[in-house]
Amino acid sequence: MSRKVLLIEDEPNIIEAIRFLLSRDGWSVHTHANGADAVEKVNRVAPDLLVLDMMLPGRSGMDILRDLRSNPATEGLPVLMLTARGQTRDRDMAEKAGANRFMTKPFSNTEVLEAVRELLAEADER
Predict the structure, then answer these.
(1) Contact 102/81 with Cβ under 8 angstroms?
(2) pLDDT band at 89 (very low <50, low <70, confident <90, very high)
(3) Contact assessment for residue 32 and residue 38, using Cβ atoms and an 8 Å cutoff
(4) 67: exposed, middle or buried (C-beta count within 10 Å: 0-12, 13-18, 19+)?
(5) 20 to 30 A Cα–Cα from 50, which one of 28, 43, 73, 89?
(6) Residue 70 above 90 pLDDT?
(7) Hey, which residues does 102 pair with through a beta bridge?
(8) Which of 103, 115, 93 is nearest to 9 (CA)?
(9) What pTM, to 2 d.p., does this model score?
(10) Which residues have CB under 8 Å from 10's CB, separation 6+?
(11) What CA–CA distance (Å, rounded) separates 85 from 38?
(12) Cβ proximity of 103 and 91 under 8 Å
């Protein structure tokens, strides 16, 4: 059975690129583009890994991440946070909120694949 990843991202080109990349690597990829109901989507899909954009319509990725970390059912979900803003302050905020990894756009396919594979390996070790 393939592992499930949920990508919460509002940029169509990034959605398609990551979906293609991860699908080709054997992942079952689910996508969502709105922050307002993202937590409900996470609960419905129950992914093995979440790729979460920091800036989304309806609700920020930071708020979504805080909600996920405060819920026992999702507190340990591996999260790769994506952002177009790469300031140190943003990285610090994401780490404090509970992001496992932080990646600045634009990123390479290799970076995404390595981060996803590493996060999954770390989760399997727990």
Answers:
(1) yes
(2) confident
(3) yes
(4) middle
(5) 89
(6) yes
(7) 81
(8) 103
(9) 0.95
(10) 33, 34, 53, 56, 57
(11) 21
(12) no
Domain extent at residue 53: 4-121
Q: For the chain, what is the domain count?
A: 1
Sequence-separated contacts (24+) of 19-24 with Cβ below 8 Å:
21/109, 21/112, 21/113, 22/112, 22/113, 22/116
Q: Which residues, in sequence order, are CB contacts of 107 under 8 Å at separation 6+?
A: 82
d(CA 45, CA 109): 24
Banded model confidence at residue 124, pLDDT cuts 50, 70, 90 = confident
- Residue 61 resides in a domain: yes
SS3 content of the chain, % helix, strand, coil (to 5): 45, 20, 35
Q: Is residue 19 part of a domain?
A: yes
CA angle 81, 106, 98 (to 5 degrees): 10
CATH number of the domain to which 37 belongs: 3.40.50.2300
* Inside any domain, residue 126: no
Task: For residue 49, give the nearest of 115, 126, 96 by alpha carbon.
Answer: 115
Average per-residue pLDDT for the chain: 94
Residue type at position 14: I
